[in-house]
Amino acid sequence: MIPLREAFGKYLLELAERRKDFFVLDADVAGGTFTHWFRDKYPDRFVQCGIAEQNMFGVAAGLSTLGIIPIVSTYAIFASLRAIEQARNSIAYPNFNVKIIASHPGIDVGPDGATHQAIEDLAVYRAIPNFVVLSPADEIELKKCLDFALDYKGSVYMRTGRSPVPNIHEHNYEFRFKEPNVLKDGDGIVIFATGIETHRALKAAEEYNVSVVNVPTLKPVDKYSFAEILKGKKFAITCEDHNIIGGLGSLIDSIVAEFGLPVKVVKIGIMDKFGKSGDPKELAEVFKIDEKAIKTEIKKCLEQL
Amino acid sequence: MKGISNKIRKHLLMSIYHAGSGHPGGSLSVVDILAYLYFEEMNIKSPDDPERDRFILSKGHACPALYAVLALKGFISRRELWRLRETNALLQGHPEVGIPGIEVASGSLGQGFSAALGIALGAKRLNKKFRTYVILGDGECNEGQVWEGAMFGAFHKLDNLVAIVDYNNLQSDNTCDNVTALSPLVDKWKVFGWHVIEIDGHNFEQIRNAFREAKSVKGKPTCIIAHTIKGKGVSFMENNPAWHGSRGLTKEELLQALKELKS
Fold first, then answer.
1. pLDDT of residue A74
2. Is 0.95 topped by the overall pTM?
3. Would you state the pLDDT for residue B42?
4. How far apart are the C-alpha atoms of B136 and B194, rounded to whole Å?
5. How many contacts (CB atoms, under 8 Å) link A and B?
6. Most buried of A88, A100, B55, B123, CB within 10 angstroms?
7. A73 in contact with B at a CB cutoff of 8 Å?
8. Which residues of chain A fall short of a pLDDT of 50?
């Protein structure tokens, strides 16, 4: 069990040994995003920007013109809203080779409450041309996503996460850019989930004959591989620690609509309202994105099959 | 230098005339500094030379002036100037990556400045000798990002960077002090830890001395506060806020301006 933000910090050290082409930028949250280990070991490749995310994104853009790959790390709320115009105009518009790695997504942020819970980041970044949007589910996938992000030439946004999660992928798991990965096969109902919700979906689905599909790439996607999975299904349940508008739920909606598939989409996520302070597990229950809420929806769908 | 400046002024006005829009006032005010930078100060023979000095026009709406300079340098074809802002043409309404000689997308105010800081920091970390120059508007200094960047530049001791503030004292709506109190602008940059030089931005001797001084400053970035005249060189545009925005010129206005620039 490891929080993805910590897995990210740990893996940065491994990556730094292997490749010299990236810098890490921080806006005074290195302890929260776990880039502090990198800061201590590689001060020459670390850039402290202070609590000034807008400038940090611009500095990243400038650095990238010199062939350096800036890994910009901050909380998802600041990356997706405070500095979003900088992300759009300074980074995505020229498609600069900048990687934005954001921790503390969704209500999983917990006690800090609504002001710090990014429930719009996937929607916002999906709406910006050029941005690749990633949301891995476990440590193994996070590493593969980061490897991919560093090899990919262009602008990338990736969510990590705050609560500890176990590994659900094998070490030989192959991350396929744009494609979802099927974790469990079943009939009639398919559950699409991303990030921490993949764990909850897997648990909820344990005793039912339903499919569970993890979605690490939110944009761009290979819509045909999604359509293939949706074929023959009657229900698609989408699970995300994110507003139901603009994230995974909307993505599946649009694929169902585009292919004219006879599938009803049921969305589990934040129901277009702000979060609250609390323990992440309790919040998941209150906002109905926990295992129990997913089970309830599975049962409802099963009754209608 | 004056001849080069005049040429730039004529070209930028003609390109704005063809486009039908494009911020003539703030373009004319930066011409003398741009001319000096590109034809005297900067080491830039090719826009692709990795060792070239870098230039960022953070006040990107003044790009007609920069485009005219890039055309005079031969980095872009002069014909492109007459297609400014046209669909499927090279020269965008604000600077865009992909135009030869343009380093970053700028013009969303404050953003070019931060990118320049990133380039200067990267140059230091990579032990590159080139210098970075960035022109900001005075109105642009309303942006919080500029002051985030001012802190950053001083903290990282970016003495390979020169920021020039085009202090023409007019922004879109009114004089700078009537929009938000911008003055005392020199003091602001000073307390943020920058070496500040105040000059007449149309006086080539003062421009030359300022850039020389900037080169000798160690341990901190330099900010040149250049007092300029919006619409400089065209009598009916000078200090007239009506020429800030993206309005174009009529044929008569263009001819009158070109006539004045000839003399």
1. 98
2. yes
3. 98
4. 15
5. 104
6. A100
7. no
8. none
pLDDT in the model for residue B263: 65
Minimal-distance CA residue of chain B relative to A69: B122
Distance CA A11, CA A7 (A): 6
Which pLDDT does position B188 carry in this prediction? 98
Beta-carbon separation of A44 and B125 below 8 A: yes
- The alpha carbon of residue A1 is apart from the nearest alpha carbon of chain B, in Å, by 37
Q: Cβ contact (<8 Å) for B148 and A85?
A: no
CB B207 within 8 A of CB B199: yes
Query: Mutating which of B121, B147, B155 best tests the A interface, going by the most A Cβ atoms within 10 A?
Result: B121
* Interchain pair B98, A44: CB under 8 A: no
Residues in chain A: 305
CA A88, A254, A105 angle in degrees (round to 5)? 50
Q: Output the six-digit token pair for B164.
A: 């020039």
Distances from the Cα of B64 to the Cα of A71, B14, B29, B91, angstroms: 34, 10, 12, 9
Give the C-alpha separation, B143 to B110, whole Å: 6
| Nearest CB to A54 within list B120, B145, B156 | B145
Cα angle A260, A236, A205 (rounded to 5 degrees) comes to: 160
In this prediction, residue B247 carries a pLDDT of 77
Cα A152 from Cα A89, distance rounded (Å): 20
